[in-house]
Amino acid sequence: MDDIDLYKDIKVKPMDAIVFGCSYGPDSMALFRTLLEYRKKSDVRLVCAHVNHDKRKESEKEKEDLEKFCKDHDVIFEYMKIEKYGDDNFHNEARNIRYGFFDQVVKKYNAKYLMTAHHGDDLMETILMRIARGSTLKGYSGFQKSVKMDNYYIYRPFVEYTKDDLVNYCHKYKVPFAIDSSNYSDVYTRNRYRKEIIPFLKKEEKDIHKKFLKFSKVLTLADNFIEEEASKTFNKIIKNGNLIIDKYLDINDFLRRIVLEKFISSFYQDDLMLINDKHLDLIDKLIKSRKSNSRVNLPNDVIVVKSYNILSISRNPSLLSSYEIEVDKDVILPNGHKLEYLEEVKGNSNNIIKLSSKEVILPLIVRTRKLGDVMAIKGGGHKKVKDIFIDSKIPLTDRDLWPIVVDSASHIVFVPGLKKSKFDKTNDEFYDIILKYE
Question: Are 35 and 43 in contact, with CB atoms under 8 Å apart?
C-alpha cells in the first residue's frame, strides 16, 4: 500500500485543510498515518474529527489517546460527544449525526476534502445489504471513492484494500489503535454480514473485494449513462423543483423509476442508502392515487406531498408551522406575503377587504388555520376554511402557513387571496379599515 499514491487524484495546495474522520480503530488510524506521510510532500493542514458515540466505557480513554496522538503529530483535533439518541435505527442515526459534525468541521476550516477510512470489505457489506433490502441502481453500486458535495469532496482512499490490509499496515508501522467490541455484536445487521458472509466469500475467492469493486464501477458507469439519458426527460417533467404528475405518467415505466430516483436523490446525496424499493413504491402509489392531496414520509424527515397535479418534496421547513400576529400595522407574514393597511383602494379582488370598526372587534389578528375553522361568507351561508382551500386548489404544503384574519372575538373576517366574509363592505357602505394582501 503506497501512502503517496493513495492521494494522487486529489488536488490541494500548501496549507489547504484536509479533514478526516477518525474513530481510533485500525481503519481510521491507518488513514491517519497515510495522511501524515502525504503531509510531508504536500504541506497540507490536517484536521482530525472524532465522534464519541458514548456506547462503550472505553470511548473516553480512546478519545484521550487520540487527542494526545494528534498533539504529538501537530494535527488539529475536533471532537463531539453524542449525548442523546432518538428512536431511529442506531447506525443510521449515528451516521447522520457524525456526518453532520464532519460537515461543520469541513466548513470551519474551509476544507476541500473530507477523508474517511471506508475500505473494500465495507463496500462488499454495503452492496450485499442493499441487494438484500432493495435499493436503486445507484444504491446497488455501494459507495464511490469520491463524492462531490456542495463545496467539498468526500474521499475514500482505501476502497481497493481490505480490513486485513489496514490492520497489517498498522502493525507494520506500529500505529496505535483500539478494537471496538461492538463490532462483534450480532445485534447489528452489518456485523452479521461482517462475521459470517464476508469471510465465506473471501474463502471462496481471495480477491473477492476486487470483484465487488469492479461490480460497483460497472453499475456506476451504467447509472451515469442512464442518468444522462434520463436528464433529458427529467427536465421536461420537473418544473420549479416539483414533479408534474400527468407528464410523469406519460413516460415508460423504466424512465419513471429513474426520474423518481433522481427527483429524490437531491435530498439524500451520499445518503441514498436510506432509500429502498419500498419507498419508491410508496411514492409511485401516491402519484397514481385518486386522492387529490396526500403525502408520504421518507427517512431523515423528508416529506413527499401530492397536491392535485404536483408532487413536491421538502425537509424540515424553516418557516414556522403556526403563528398568531396582531394586525395593528403592516405585517410581513411567515409565508413571505404581506398584509398592509390602505388609505384608499380601487378594485374589489379577493386580495382586498373593507371592514367597519363598528362591526368587528379590534384588534384584528392574523393566524394559521385551526381545526374546525368556519367563516360566515359574503352573500350568506357558512363555509369551512378547509373547503375554501380545496375549492381554490391550494397545495397541502401551503395550507398550514396560509393567513387567516380574525377579529378579537375570533370571527373569521378574511381568508386573504381566497375568500371574504360577511363583514366585507361595498364602496357604498361605511368602512374605515382597508386591508390588502400581497
Answer: no
The per-residue pLDDT for range 308-330, each reduced to its tens digit, is 999 988 765 544 456 788 888 88
235 backbone φψ class: left, alpha, beta (φ>0; ψ -120 to 50): alpha
8 Å CB contact between 135 and 217 = no
Nearest to 116 by CA among 129, 103, 125: 103
Do residues 80 and 51 touch, judged by C-beta distance below 8 A? yes
Phi, psi of 120 (to 5 degrees): -60, -40
Share of the chain above pLDDT 90, in %: 52
What are the structural domains, with CATH classification, of the chain?
A: 5-119+156-204 (3.40.50.620), 237-315 (3.30.465.60), 324-437 (3.50.40.10)
pLDDT in tens, 338-385: 898 998 887 788 999 999 999 999 999 999 888 889 999 888 889 999
Could you report the per-residue pLDDT of 1-29, keeping only the tens digit for each? Answer: 666 589 988 999 999 999 999 999 999 99
Grid coordinates representing 435 are 386591508
pTM for this entry: 0.58
> Tens digit of pLDDT for each residue in 416-427?
999 999 999 998
Concatenated DSSP letters of 374-411:
EEEBTTSSEEEHHHHHHHTT--HHHHTT--EEE-TT--
**In whole angstroms, what separates CA 12 from the centre of its chain?**
28
What gap in Å lies between CA 393 and CA 99, rounded to an integer? 39
Residue among 17, 10, 84 nearest 53 (CA): 84
Across 105-123, average pLDDT = 95
- Residue whose C-alpha cell reads 373576517 in the numeric block: 413
Between CA 155 and CA 117 the distance in angstroms is: 9
Q: Are 337 and 437 in contact (CB under 8 A)?
A: yes
**What pLDDT, on a 0 to 100 scale, did the predictor assign at position 352?**
93
How far apart (Å, rounded) are the C-alpha atoms in residues 330 and 418? 19
DSSP at 82? -
Strands 45-52 and 76-81: parallel
pLDDT at 319: 40
How does DSSP classify residue 188?
A: S
What are the angstrom distances between the C-alpha of 102 and each of 20, 50, 78, 109, 203? Answer: 8, 9, 9, 11, 36
Distance CA 10, CA 20 (A): 14
Q: Are 416 and 367 in contact (CB under 8 A)?
A: no
Which amino acid is residue 360, in one-letter code?
A: V
Taking the C-alpha atoms of residue 325 and residue 312, their distance in angstroms, rounded to an integer, is 28
